Amino acid sequence: xxxNELRLQNDRRLAMVMVVLFLVPTVWYLQTDFVLFGGDWSRxxxxxxxRGSMFAVAIAGLAALALVRSREGYSRVAFATGxxxxxxxxxxxxxxxxxxxxxxxxPLFTIAVMYGLLPNTVFRQVLxxxxxxxxxxxxxxxxxxxxxxxxxxxxxxxxxxxxxAGVLMVRRRRELESSLEVAWQNERNARLASDRAFADLRTLxxxxxxxxxxxxxxxxxxxxxQIERYVQRHSHAEFSHGVCPSCRDLHYADFSPSxxx
Length: 261
Fold this sequence. Notes:
Elements: H1 3-28, H2 30-37, H3 41-67, H4 71-94, H5 105-117, H6 122-141, H7 149-201, E1 217-218, E2 224-225, H8 227-234, H9 245-251
Helix pairs in contact: 1-3, 1-4, 1-5, 2-3, 3-4, 4-6, 5-6, 5-7, 6-7
């Protein structure tokens, strides 16, 4: 199987695992919405709409990933799914009351799995978690900022470190994949060259020195061989001996049907 097809299958499986992992907190935190805003439908309804959109994005992403059959198709679907997840999470956190706490557990989890389980080109893989991180940082500094400055600084440092490690991991993975592709292509080229060399070795070509009288052939080392032996050594041909009609009449005249009777 070609290496690109193997990579496509592996990356698609990883991306589908990432989307499934994203679905778990999306469904789980529904109960948190009802606990926090159960008596206030003006706040609960927008959150339920966003969570429903997040669920729809995940299901659509799973279906699209299962249907893609090309590397570029997968790349576009994975990028669109990751970006939609990032935007929906920012919308959800933007619906929190002003100056409320911003729990980073779920966003940090999503950022981590995006870097680890959503393989793509470097740009298309790092952009969704960077967008999510930048949006969270803006919310943390403005709308959802805490009265404790050290908490804000600590959250920003965590986001910065996580993204730096994620970008480095993605770049390293792409370098390893590129090296693997080069090694696989070199091995394939070497195998094809070996097959061609073997075919050439077993094929008669060029000028073959042959005796005008006995029809023996001179080999590369200078000895003279029967033509049958020479051909067998330098090709895949085999000989089956018989007697043609002319030689039969010449050498076996007494047994020839033309002289019988």
